[in-house]
């Protein structure tokens, strides 16, 4: 699945999203995360100790995730914008770190469904 130009522009303008994973007890875990979009329109999530995080272990056990990026374009008038991406995630090791201080692990999300609001 590919993002539209408007969706790519929005994702490129944002610094944080929220990743929802499935915990070992079957319950949700939701975390704010930094992200990037790669050339294949997949979401890449990195961190300083990504391989040791609960979200990384959750993805290793259960790859179904949801990722949300949202903000308010305006409060008067009220204009929320958002993307919800549902898909399959992979917990990857030994990858090129995002930058200095980042660990060599990432979570890579392949979108299967995208819900958008307020972007077009």
Automatic annotation (TrEMBL):
Tagged with keyword Oxidoreductase: yes
GO CC annotations on file: cytosol
GO molecular function, one term: oxidoreductase activity, acting on the CH-CH group of donors
Keyword Oxidoreductase part of the UniProt annotation: yes
Key words of the record: Oxidoreductase
InterPro entries cross-referenced by the UniProt entry: F420H2_bilvrd_red/Heme_oxyg (IPR052019), MSMEG_5819/OxyR (IPR024031), Pyridox_Oxase_N (IPR011576), Split_barrel_FMN-bd (IPR012349)
Protein name: Pyridoxamine 5'-phosphate oxidase family protein
Species annotation: Nocardioides terrae
Source lineage: Bacteria, Bacillati, Actinomycetota, Actinomycetes, Propionibacteriales
